[in-house]
């Protein structure tokens, strides 16, 4: 059983945490950067077990210098189709995003994917699917260590390679990254 003083301490802690979150949210700002077709390059590999994948050049905006990044979200529209693998068709194939440890080159090189934490999202088969993927940790690494920014690779890249994804530009942008940060 918790004493009255213990209950008051718990309520006070909850209040302080809530106030901290509210203050932080009130100070939050955002910046959206469009990735054009020059920033998002489609690659059609010779390996027919792969579908198209995309190399994304990511430039972290200068406005984030010295700011605390709360979240970064990659948004893109894709057409999605499924591939049969071992007599099975998954109607929500996995779209994967990895940071790269080095410049990619002409062919897909999974050894250059920064692992073990890819950013992933299942996407239902169909046309013009709007997808949001949290890329916060990748961008935080790019901010901490700018020389680690070799961009992102996007597609059905590992596992069963069961999806084919085609990026559909919207309003001149192939994709966007929205950065949410503390505006101090």
Short description:
It is built from 2 helices and 12 strands, in the order H-E-E-E-E-E-E-E-E-E-H-E-E-E. The protein has helices spanning 4-26, 136-144; strands spanning 28-35, 40-43, 53-56, 68-82, 84-85, 88-89, 94-99, 119-122, 126-134, 152-155, 163-167, 175-182. A hairpin with a 2-residue loop joins strand 5 and strand 6.
Question: Your description of this structure?
Answer:
With 184 residues, the protein is an alpha+beta fold. It has one domain: Sandwich (Jelly Rolls). Helix content is 17%, strand content 39%. It has 2 helices and 12 strands, in the order αβββββββββαβββ. The strands form 3 sheets. Strands 1, 4, 9, 11 and 12 form a 5-stranded antiparallel sheet that branches. A 5-stranded antiparallel sheet has the order 2-3-10-7-8, with no helix packed on it. A hairpin with a 2-residue loop joins β5 and β6 (88-89). It is globular and about 60 Å long. The N and C termini lie far apart (42 Å).
CATH-derived architecture: Sandwich
CATH class: Mainly Beta
Structural class: alpha+beta
Number of helices: 2
The gyration radius over C-alpha positions equals 20 Å
Q: How far apart are the termini?
A: 42 Å
Content of β-strand: 35-45%
CATH topology heading? Jelly Rolls
The number of strands is 12
- Report the sheet with the most strands, covering strand number, pairing sense and barrel closure: 5 strands, antiparallel
**General form:** globular
What order do the helices and strands follow? HEEEEEEEEEHEEE
Low-pLDDT residue intervals, each spanning 5 or more residues? 15-25
Proportion in helices: 10-25%
Mean pLDDT: 80
Count of spatially separate domains: 1
